[in-house]
Design brief:
There is one protein chain. The protein has 80 residues and is mainly α. It has a domain of 53 residues. Helix content is 60%, strand content 0%. It has three helices and no strands. The two termini are 33 Å apart.
Length: 80
């Protein structure tokens, strides 16, 4: 998640963006810097999730196998 704007340290970067997207964003009043930040933050989050899942794949599969064989632990205490 992004920090509040007052606490962010900004850095200028050069990037290439499809000119049609730039035209549409301007026409719609979209702040391209903020939209880019949000998109990059979302991509970072997705990649961190993907890597975590890959790193923990064996443990997740082992846990899922256990539940398939034995059911959920403490299932008899569930109220739903």
């Amino acid at each position: 998640m992004l920090q509040p704007a007052a606490k962010l340290q900004r850095k200028s970067v050069n990037t290439s963006i499809d000119s049609k997207l730039i035209e549409e964003a301007k026409a719609l009043g979209i702040n391209m810097s903020r939209a880019a930040e949000q998109g990059i933050a979302k991509a970072i989050s997705a990649e961190k999730t993907r890597r975590w899942q890959e790193e923990n794949k064996a443990a997740i599969e082992s846990s899922n196998d256990y539940v398939k064989r034995n059911g959920l632990p403490l299932a008899k205490y569930r109220l739903f």
